[in-house]
Amino acid sequence: MYAQLVETGSTRLRKLDELSGDERRFQERIDAGIKIEPKDWMPEGYRKTLIRQISQHAHSEIVGQLPEGNWITRAPTLKRKAILLAKVQDEAGHGLYLYSAAETLGVSRDQMIDDLHSGKAKYSSIFNYPTLSWADIGAIGWLVDGSAIVNQIPLCRCSYGPYARAMVRVCKEESFHQRQGFDIMMALCRGTPEQKAMAQDALNRWWWPCLMMFGPSDAESVNSAQSAQWGIKLFSNDELRQKMVDQTVPQAEYLGLTIPDPDLKWNEEKGHYDYGAIEWAEFYNVVKGNGPCNRDRLKARVDAHENGAWFRDALLAYADKQAQRSTAAAA
Ligand code: 3HC
């Protein structure tokens, strides 16, 4: 199975009149658009669902530094290097806000990190693909951060206050990331034929994995219905995927690049682009840990954690010393 199937307390969506008093009041608050705050009563399934999603989101931001971090030393100019460094640092910051938001639900940072390192908690499938050329850095900013924005703007209005507020700043920074990626693609597309070919190759490799980022199709998405009822998800996986396709096709045309999908076609009646079939077998394979870089990514995170043990020990020793000093001073 590709999903953890977090216990949400019910096997089907229940109507208002089937809920207990607390549950009904909770659902009515959500339906009225009132944010849920950490000390408010909440169903256990809501708390677990948020811990699952927010911690996985945090892990994605942290693991997401690896494919781009790989290019910091090889960025073509000093300016590009400074921009990329800032972007990768932003991703670290996003991870930290999100871990903090998850902690308000009663889970510890250590637990979340253990769940990532043991393979129990997921991170986004997209970060299990390699960055083979500088154009990949452009494609990631343009397409991966572009997709992240489409998915995350609605999260600024989700029902859980700390998550919604964290997402406001995250989204502002993601917009800068998307623009810097598009700017790299523009420079390559206006460059030599070899540079343009490099941009096209990056688009060819990143397009389909980006569509997969939005998660399984609505018919296969096990968590969507409950998350929608709880105001965590405001749009379905397929709705957001369609939005990404619709906004990206004109951008690719502007760049003079071809989206690698022979079935991509404007559908006048629907007012949307139709697109070809997604290789779901590839998605599930990556989610289960068998993508091109899954093992390397997890190993890099576990190694970083282990190599940083001395620093965490030093912080604790310092905090103990400070506490002893203040106790001695108060005596
Ligand atoms: N990669 C890995 N796992 C995925 C996935 C993906 N792209 N899409 C779905 N899954 C997993 C889910 O986590 C779930 O498994 P779980 O039960 O073990 O957690 C399972 O597949 C079933 O999918 P559902 O559609 O039922 O799951 P959700 O309702 O949670 O929807 C989601 C998935 C749309 C990704 C949702 O969790 C979400 O919106 N998350 C917040 C945003 C996020 O985490 N984005 C990750 C990218 S962050 C990023 O890109 C960083 C930026 O800097 C570029």
Structure description:
The chain has 331 residues and is an all-alpha fold. 64% of the residues lie in helices and 2% in strands. It has helices at residues 21-31, 44-63, 65-69, 78-103, 109-118, 134-152, 161-189, 193-212, 224-229, 237-255, 280-290, 294-307, 309-330, and strands spanning 265-267, 272-274. Helix 6 runs antiparallel to helix 7 (161-189). The mean pLDDT is 95.
Main β-sheet description: 2 strands, antiparallel
Taking Cα atoms only, what radius of gyration do you get, to the nearest Å?
22 Å
Number of strand elements: 2
Helix % is 55-70%
* Alpha carbon gap, first and last residue: 58 Å
| Shape annotation | globular
Which features does this protein show?
single chain; 331 residues; mainly alpha; two-stranded antiparallel ribbon; 2 strands; binds 3-hydroxybutanoyl-coenzyme A
Structural topology:
Elements: H1 21-31, H2 44-63, H3 65-69, H4 78-103, H5 109-118, H6 134-152, H7 161-189, H8 193-212, H9 224-229, H10 237-255, E1 265-267, E2 272-274, H11 280-290, H12 294-307, H13 309-330
Antiparallel strand pairs: 1-2
Helix pairs in contact: 2-4, 4-7, 6-7, 6-8, 6-10
Explain briefly what this protein structure is:
By secondary structure, the chain is mainly α. It has helices spanning 21-31, 44-63, 65-69, 78-103, 109-118, 134-152, 161-189, 193-212, 224-229, 237-255, 280-290, 294-307, 309-330, and strands at residues 265-267, 272-274. The model has no long low-confidence stretch (mean pLDDT 95).
